[in-house]
Fold these 2 entries.
Entry 1:
Amino acid sequence: MRDDGFTLIEALVTISVIAIALMSILTLMSGTFNLNQRADSQSQATQLAQLQFDALKRVTPTTMPKNGQEEEDVTFNGREFRVRRSYCVTVAYCTSDQRSVQLDVFQGKTLLFTGETVFTELRVK
C-alpha cells in the first residue's frame, strides 16, 4: 500500500490550524480598527474643542455667565458630539473682567476631550 497524499485526519487538522490562525488575524484586525476609530474620534473631538475655544475668544468675557453649564449637540465632520461648557470652574479666575471656562466633548457617554482656559479682556491705553 502506498502512502500518497493526505489522510482525512491530516486534512482536518490542517484546516483546523488554518482556521484558528485566520480567526486570530481577524481578531487582531478588528481590535486595530476599533483603536483607529477611537483615535480618530479623539482627534475630531480635539479639533471641535479648538473651534469652540476660538469662538469663545470673540465673546466679551463680561457677557459670559458667572457660573453654570451649557450643553449642545454638534455634528462635526459627520460625527455626533455633545459639547459642555462649564463657567467659572476655577473660581479664582472668575473676576469682573475674566472668566474660567472648561470645555468637555463627549461622543455618546464617552468623554473624549476636556480642557480649561481663562478668557480676559485686554485694554490698550
Note: The first helix runs from residue 8 to 57.
Entry 2:
Amino acid sequence: MIQHKNILLLFLLGLVYFNSYSQVKNLGKADFEDWKNDRIEEVTSENGWLNLSGLFWLNNELKFLNTLNQELILETQSRNENLGYFEWNADSVWFIPNSRTREKFNLPSKILQFPEESYGSNALKIPPWKWSIIERDESFGVRTRNLNHPSISKFNGIPAYGYQENWSIEAQFIPKFNESILIKNVVGQEYEVNVMGHILFQYEGQDHELLAFEEEGKLWVIFSDLTNEKETYPSGRYMYVGFPDRTGKLNLDFNYAYNPPCAFTKFATCPIPPKENRLDFAIPAGEKWPKDLGY
C-alpha cells in the first residue's frame, strides 16, 4: 500500500510540476450518460454488488462451506451438501474441496485464495455460486455470490440528478507524503488509510477542504453532505477525482458522486466518511439513494 502510494504521489507531483496533465482525462458533461450506463453494468455484472449473498468471517470454528436452500453458507460443521472447507494463516487462505467437489469440477486438492483487494480477483466459481476472500482489519472474510440472485432481475437502475455545470468545481490539490488517518467501516472495523492529498475548493464564497485517498490508482474521495438520508444514501457517497494539472488545479465534479456498495447489498464493508470530509451543505448532484432495494 505504501509503495503504491509513493508511486501515485510521484506521478501526481509529475503532473503538478512537469506539465504532464495531457496524460490524464477528466470526465465532463459529454461523458455523463456513458458513465451512468457503466455504473449499471458495474453493479449488475458477475463481480458486481447485486449478486452478493453472504459475508462470513473465518475463525477456528467457522470454516466449512456448505450449501443450504440454494445459497452458500459458512458453518462450524460439515453438512451432506458441502463443497469443502478453509485453512488459513496470517496472509493466505486455502480452500480444500471435498472429493465429490474435486471430481465433479476437476479441481486440485488444495487451492490458494489471496485477498482480492491485494492481488486482484482470485475467486472460485462453481455455478451458480462464486466466492472470494477479502481482508479487513487483519481478519479474512469469505464473500459469496449467487449468480442467479433475484435482485438482478428486479433491478430498476440507479436514480441520479441530471448533469449540472455548477457542480463541476475548480479546486486545488495539495499532495501529502506522510499523512494518514483512521477510517471506520459500516461493520465497525477501523483501519489506517494513507492520505494522498488535500483538495481545497470554494462553494458560495466559503472555503472547504476534502481529504483524497487512493483507490485503484486514482484519487478518491469519501464524503457526506446534507442530502444524505433524504435524497442520497445515508452514510455518504464516493467520487473519483481527475488528476491535477501542473499548477495543482483539478476538477471536482460532484455530478459523478456515486453510491457506496452498501446501497446495493448488506454484505459490503463500506468505509464511512471521516469527519474531515463531512460537508455542511447540500450537494444535489450525482447518484441518488436507490431506496427500492431496501438498503
Note: Residues 222 and 238 are 5 Å apart (CA to CA).
